[in-house]
Write a structure and sequence with these properties.
Structural class: alpha+beta
Radius of gyration: 33 Å
Oligomer: single chain
Shape: elongated
Number of domains: 4
Strand order of the largest sheet: 6-7-10-9-8-11-12
Number of strands: 12
Strand content: 15-25%
Low-confidence stretches: 1-32, 220-227
Number of helices: 17
Bound molecules: zinc ion
Distance between the termini: 68 Å
């Protein structure tokens, strides 16, 4: 009860500060002053107060002020009457507070005609803390800190306003701000062509290919079913990026191993990002080419690898080794395009499949030992040990040719003994945030990661 009395005293003292307006400015020199106070959104909104006779420019403004008031003073307020002529707000709990405003035709304003006082206590859970309100209050701070964690945003709002906010509303608010800042998906796709042109002009020898599909143009004058698709427009389908300086590094200096991997894009446009990377002197993979495609399947891998083959001018397949997580589409595409090329499978991925059927630390150590040995006799010896421990595990491994997973059988031309496809761990995790962004923002963030990790 003491808290409620404090609120009321605060209300009374600050409402005195609200200014009155001189009606003579509207009525050509009559000298009387308007006896009512008019609410000023710019100066009074953050300290919303009510006073009998207070006036509002519009119905919506009055409602917005009631909501701000409810959040500021943490009251449960509802609208029991809400039309263009009359608005009545009432305290939800057993409290006499009512604020009633109606349209005054003569002045073209809404005036408070009934106002009671609160006898209720403050609440922590206020209904009007919406995503719209969060956007209005926190737009600038979210814009300056786009990766602000939702939980941290929630804690900030709770400590500054003493209200509880649903995490979902905060997430929605942050997305609304970022969409306003970065542009919608459609706006970003419209920018894509100029972005590509800019990259081509500034980063020499970079290859960018964009594939579009023609779809019937739909507008108010044409119906594709009626016009039979005569009037068409281009729609984005696939995009290929191969960075000039990285391509040069891969071809001139580094070991001829191409690691391939794919990951899902989480933005509203969806799709998959397929990546190819080379191996540097420290056995780290650096991505130099990637594509955005609709699905991860043989057809899209083929499209990617054909462009890569042309771009890298691959003529002697024997110089190259592919490395992957044994993705089906990639295996088929490599086998079709480069039938004699070496293809390694990531041993960690192999072990994950192995341990599902053959458990135990002994078998784990033996499998890794088999992968690490560098001579064929050593390989045969370790395989014999596996056969002694578990015959089924031995048979499982025999079905998988060691040329794909054991150093003892690798092609020695690339001078690279890498067993793991690090592309997934390193690159995919470093572009985690970028993967949920609209297309141009995503490409820019990936470009930043790629050039930062440039060898
Ligand atoms: Zn109340």
């Amino acid at each position: 009860m003491t808290e409620a009395v404090d609120d009321l005293q605060s209300l009374r003292s600050s409402s005195d500060e609200l200014r009155s307006i001189d009606s003579s400015s509207d009525e050509g020199g009559t000298s009387h002053r308007r006896q009512y106070l008019i609410f000023n959104v710019d100066s009074d909104m953050h300290n919303s107060q009510f006073k009998l006779g207070m006036e509002f420019k519009s119905h919506d403004m009055f409602r917005d002020v009631v909501k701000e008031y409810a959040i500021k003073w943490r009251k449960h307020i509802t609208f029991i009457k809400n039309d263009k002529q009359k608005v009545r707000a009432k305290c939800k709990v057993s409290c006499p507070w009512v604020c009633y405003a109606s349209y005054v035709k003569h002045d073209g304003l809404y005036r408070i005609k009934t106002l009671d006082e609160h006898t209720c206590n403050r609440s922590f859970d206020v209904a009007y803390v919406s995503s719209k309100w969060i956007v209005k209050r926190y737009f600038e701070r979210i814009r300056l800190n786009p990766t602000w964690p939702i939980q941290s945003l929630s804690d900030t709002i709770s400590s500054e306003h003493n209200v509880k906010v649903d995490l979902q509303k905060e997430r929605r608010a942050r997305n609304k701000v970022l969409t306003q800042v970065e542009g919608t998906t459609a706006e970003q796709f419209a920018m894509l062509w100029s972005y590509i042109e800019e990259i081509r002009n500034t980063i020499p020898k970079t290859t960018i290919c964009i594939k579009v599909k023609q779809i019937p143009k739909v507008n108010e004058w044409t119906n594709p079913r009626v016009s039979d698709g005569i009037d068409t427009e281009s729609k984005f389908k696939r995009l290929y990026f191969c960075w000039g300086p990285l391509k040069k590094a891969f071809m001139n200096v580094y070991k001829l191993v191409i690691g391939g991997d794919g990951c899902h894009l989480k933005g509203s446009h969806g799709g998959i990002l397929l990546t190819a990377g080379g191996i540097d002197a420290k056995n780290c993979i650096f991505p130099f080419a990637y594509v955005i495609v609709e699905k991860k399947k043989k057809k899209t891998w083929l499209w990617f690898l054909e462009l890569l083959e042309h771009d890298l001018n691959i003529v002697n397949f024997h110089c190259y080794t592919f490395m992957s997580d044994k993705q089906k589409g990639l295996i088929d595409a490599v086998a079709e395009l480069f039938p004699n090329v070496s293809h390694r499978f990531c041993v960690r991925h192999l072990y994950n499949n192995f341990k599902g059927k053959h458990k135990g630390l002994v078998l784990k150590d033996l499998l890794w030992k088999t992968a690490r040995v560098t001579t064929v006799p050593a390989f045969v010896k370790v395989m014999a040990e596996i056969k002694e421990v578990d015959c089924k595990a031995y048979n499982w491994l025999v079905e998988r040719p060691p040329i794909h997973w054991s150093r003892s059988h690798f092609n020695t031309f690339p001078k690279c003994d890498l067993l793991l496809n690090n592309l997934r761990e390193c690159f995919n995790s470093s572009i985690l945030e970028a993967r949920s962004k609209p297309v141009v923002t995503m490409l820019e963030k990936i470009r930043f990661v790629v050039t930062r990790t440039c060898p």
